[in-house]
Write a structure and sequence with these properties.
Length: 122
């Protein structure tokens, strides 16, 4: 079992930055790849970024590539999402999730946090 709690969301102006954190409970954090997803009002949940167990590999959605960076600190059981050059279309609830493999498919993720709201104003 892995419990995930996101933090760091808020209101930011377009062009600004935010860093999301996701703290995991349990001893097996380093056994999971971690992903970030988001869901905007009226839209389906979409993949944002994922990072491998060791943190050596990452993947990103095209919409955030070059602007967002995913990282993890296994000693702190925490995964991060640094978001730069933010756009109004980044507005969504952001979720972190844990999977046995690094993937952009949400059905591969067994554990989910409750999400944190990110709002980007014009």
């Amino acid at each position: 079992q892995v419990q995930l709690v996101e933090s760091g969301g808020g209101l930011v102006q377009a062009g600004g930055s935010l860093r999301l954190s996701c703290a995991a409970s349990g001893r097996s954090f380093s056994s999971y790849a971690m992903g970030w997803f988001r869901q905007a009002p009226g839209k389906e949940r979409e993949f944002v970024a994922a990072i491998s167990l060791s943190g050596g590999s990452t993947i990103y959605a095209d919409s955030v590539k070059g602007r967002f960076t995913v990282s993890r600190d296994n000693a702190k059981n925490t995964v991060y999402l640094q978001m730069n050059s933010m756009k109004p279309e980044d507005t969504a609830v952001y979720y972190c999730a844990a999977s046995r493999s690094m993937t952009g498919w949400d059905h591969e993720y067994a554990y989910w946090g409750r999400g944190t709201q990110v709002t980007v104003s014009t």
